[in-house]
Amino acid sequence: MSEFTRFLNRPEGQTFERKSCYDKSKKPPERLNARDVARQIAETLCAMSNADGGVVLVGQEDVREGREETGEISGVDYNETTLAQLRDAGQRLVVPPLRDVFLQESFEQGKRLLLFRVDPRPTTHHLTDGRCVLRIGDRNEPYSEVEIARLKERQSPYERVLVPAATLDDLDTDALAWFAQRVGWTDSHAALLDEYNLLDGSNLNRAALLLFARKPGRWQDHTDVTIVRYAGKERGLGPNYRATRPARIEAPLVRLIEMAHAALGDHLIKRIGLRDLFFEEELEYPEFAWQEAVVNAVAHRDYLLSGAGIEVWLFDDRLEIRSPGEPLVPLEKLQAGGGIHYSRSPLIARVLIDSGYMREQGPGNPRLFRHMEAAYLHPPSFAFDDIRFIVTLLNTPVNDTETRHRLLRLD
User: Fold this and answer.
1) Taking 70 as the threshold, does the pLDDT of residue 275 lie above it?
2) Are residue 286 and residue 385 in the same domain, yes or no?
3) Alpha helix locations (H) across 222-374?
4) Res. 328: pLDDT tops 50
């Protein structure tokens, strides 16, 4: 499998986009002006550099079901002089110039493809036409430089700190093999780590150890998730403290989410709920809602705060997911149902996205609201207690059973 092949069927999203050099709406298709293609490349590289980084594949049509464009390799068919406009688009059309964008070229099915890789940058970049864009899901959204700069201030350099004492032998080979299979990687594990900026020469960084270490606790305290269910609606003190034995899950991050989902599912109460005019057994919270909250906690917690891990508290009326660190966006924006895909730790986020845990189609917060509403539950709430970001899901319905039954019949 070539380096390019593993991208050919990949869906577009937060860290990946493909560009065609042809206008397929014309019959026969017409080749686009190279200046326009260069501007599209520059815009996406700029947006990705302002977010989590990513890859732009040029020379392939969109992969969409039910459409004529089904991932056809249409190629990059320009002469060498014109090709230069595409190759250096990130330098010519972005300010400050993206000088160290990694570029590969290959021929697949006899047609040229270009592959650009850009890392997340500490500096905010904008286009030479004055626009500033941020990658959100599979779109390049206009965003103010001031707002992007504020987001970047909250990014932690911690994940890039090198750990000379750590070696490849300290990593979980099963976790690496699992991830390699997920992304279609056939080269060595060392090359895979280098591809994801987790290895500098022979030195692993903190992100590599958080994601893949056999014993994460050897390198950092409290990378775990702890789940506990309390009796009643409060934690209680002394003789009033009644709780299950805490379930503590510690594993490399690429496996931690799956294990935490399984453990939390075992702690949730099954109830008889009304769905499509029929009563059936269901968990007390929508599956997407609590799973998304766990993913976000693992991906976006502040790993620099090593004195505490992620805690999940279950009460009779609510579920609280508490993760170290302040929220990346204002609480009022989150509470209004808005969201933005932005990562405190973009190296970790990219691996979790490519693992399939984080959805590339956009921020999960609006969907979390929709799933809670669809289950006739109150919207989630958000708080910050100086060191922890807290997401709360209530399991009490907004309407009584009779009202929900009537609403279902109206639907």
Assistant:
1) no
2) yes
3) 253-267, 287-300, 331-335, 346-355, 365-374
4) yes
